[in-house]
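For the sake of transparency, this paper describes our internal protein records without simplification. Because each token names a local backbone shape, the row as a whole describes the fold. One such record is reproduced below, unchanged from the form in which we store it:
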Amino acid sequence: MSNFKQGAKRVLIHLAVILGLLFAVLFIFFQVYLPGYTNHGETVTVPDLENFSYHEIESYLEARDLRYEITPDSGFVADAEPLSVLKQNPRPGAKVKQDRKIYITLNAENAPLIKMPNLVNSPLKNAQEVLSNYGLLRGEIIYVPDIGQNVVLEQKFHGRSIQEGFEIPKGSQIDLVVGDGLGKQSLSIPNLIGMEEEEAEFLIVGSGLRMGRVNFVTTDTVPKGTIVKQLPPSGIEAKTGELVDVWVSELGATENDF
């Protein structure tokens, strides 16, 4: 019986030693080795990289124990510098491990070309929504006498009328010629001959008309920049908002060139 007790005692001692060693190994692994291997508790706050130039990112992130990768997708924001950061993942302020990779989306170096939508005969509010959806900016609103109140009559890019489908850079400003709801009234075309171009345009707009095509002709008898011809001619009855074409002098030849 005593031999049985002594054997059982030795088994319990061996078992206790094994359990103790196992506990020690687990303690060292989870509390010492694993935290050191995974940099437990050592985190880095992700900085805000928005508007950073592509050339600034690498050194800036290396100094903070972070890496980066440029995503194949790019966006375009007209107000942002080319190749500047538009988006990042993880977001600014996130806590990450050292050497974590930050995924960067850059602003395109060149604005992509898009086809101009048709805004003519659309209400101004709808036209503005369409411009926004196409990534275009609404420029100047030019009111002209027309029975269609706040209805788009013409769409312009850099001062020139453009048609639907014309390719323009994304982010461009589009000016809109819009009716004021007053309708068309009869008036007499003013005499523009002999005026300077800027003065003539001021009189045309002030008379309720619109500046039409500006043509240039060469002459050595009229000062440069002077109106030498107009259509319709002065004195003709016209409707408000009607276009008036002018011919402007340039030095070089004779007045007969026009």
User: Anything to note?
Assistant: The CA atoms of residues 160 and 202 lie 18 Å apart. The chain is about 25% helix and 30% strand.
